[in-house]
């Protein structure tokens, strides 16, 4: 789905949540409930369910590959050596 097809992040997040099934589907159902039950004084859902960028970070903390994240952290801490073309180096970083 083209992200520009949605008029705001709220619609986009709701659409993404509707597409989830299995373990993620159960999680999505809880997020729908939170969108309504946990609104702030400005009638806004929780911060992680307002903007798509925040939602992706929130989702990845729940379902992301922790091994991949830890590997990336270790690589970042030890540094990167440019061994090939600059474009490949920037992709890796």
Briefly note the structural class of the backbone.
mainly alpha
Helices, by number, come to 5
Q: Based on CA inertia axes, which overall geometry fits?
A: elongated
- Uncertain stretches: none
| Mean pLDDT over the residues | 83
Instruction: Summarize the biggest pleated sheet.
Output: none
Task: Please state the CA-atom Rg, rounded to the nearest Å.
Answer: 18 Å
Number of strands: 0
> From N to C, what is the helix and strand string?
HHHHH
Termini Cα gap = 28 Å
- The tally of domains stands at 1
Percentage of residues in DSSP E strands: under 5%
SSE layout and pairings?
Blueprint: H1 9-19, H2 22-37, H3 52-63, H4 66-78, H5 86-92
What does this structure look like?
This protein is 63% helix and 0% strand. It starts with 8 loop residues before the first helix and ends with a helix. The protein has one domain. The longest helix has 16 residues. It is an all-alpha fold and 93 residues long. The radius of gyration is 18 Å and the shape is elongated. The protein contains five helices and no strands.
Key terms for this structure?
single chain, 93 residues, mainly alpha, elongated
Short précis:
This protein has helices spanning 9-19, 22-37, 52-63, 66-78, 86-92. With 93 residues, it is mainly α.
């Amino acid at each position: 789905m083209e992200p520009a097809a949605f008029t705001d992040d709220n619609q986009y997040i709701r659409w993404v949540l509707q597409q989830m099934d299995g373990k993620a589907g159960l999680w999505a159902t809880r997020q729908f409930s939170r969108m309504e039950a946990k609104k702030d004084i400005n009638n806004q859902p929780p911060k992680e369910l307002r903007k798509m960028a925040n939602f992706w970070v929130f989702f990845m903390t729940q379902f992301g590959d922790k091994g991949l994240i830890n590997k990336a952290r270790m690589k970042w801490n030890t540094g990167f050596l440019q061994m090939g073309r600059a474009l490949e180096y920037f992709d890796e970083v």
